[in-house]
Amino acid sequence: MFTRRTALRSGAALTGTLGAAGLAVPLLGGTEAGAAAPGEAAGQAGAGAAGFDVSALVKFTRPLPALPVLSPRRRTARAETYELRQRETECEIVPGLKTRVRTFDGCFAPPVIKAVRGRRTVIRQVNELTVPTSIHLHGGHVPESSDGGPMDLVQPGASRTYTYPNEQAHANLWFHDHAHHQESETVFRGLTGLICSPTRPSSGCRCPRAPTTCRSRSATSASTRPGRSSTP
Fold this sequence. Notes:
Layout: H1 4-24, H2 47-50, E1 69-70, E2 74-75, E3 79-91, E4 99-104, E5 112-116, E6 120-127, E7 135-138, E8 159-164, E9 171-177, H3 183-188, E10 192-199, E11 229-230
Parallel strand pairs: 3-6, 5-10
Antiparallel strand pairs: 1-11, 2-3, 3-4, 6-8, 7-9, 9-10
């Protein structure tokens, strides 16, 4: 007999199958905007991934990178202002192979912003990707205009300023793309960041202290400018 329980089980099985197939797409060399197409130089996303022998990979040989901490472009008693540029770059996740990733300011290890309770964090997000984005602070208590709804898109070449009040209890939050039908792909490719939020003005935030780990052809020379990744 076909019952409600049978239908639910069938639906769950179908969802799991489709989900697994979707996760496999990037590994099979998908060619949506920004991805490398089959036939490109070996080692890049696409052709390189399709021919890679996973069994030959030696595990646990690379140190876990310390996360780069960003410095504000401007700081007042009431707000700290940042500018982040969303762009693609290449990084070496697997030794000897270059992977095309999407980043904030060329940082594949997620950048960290140290917030202060009662002092607003203002971030101007500039979209230099080939797809629209909408940046959402996951778990943040923010106004609707800065919530990064799935349909509240920032088109390629455009920018938007997000304001976070930092009036909630202490939390380590992450921000990520939230664009409708694009979020999982963009996050999978690396477009994420962290906000250590919020600490008291006098307490500081014990984030890792390390030089920037950003590696970008266009961003390396600019990584120490205000608003870019730098040693805290």
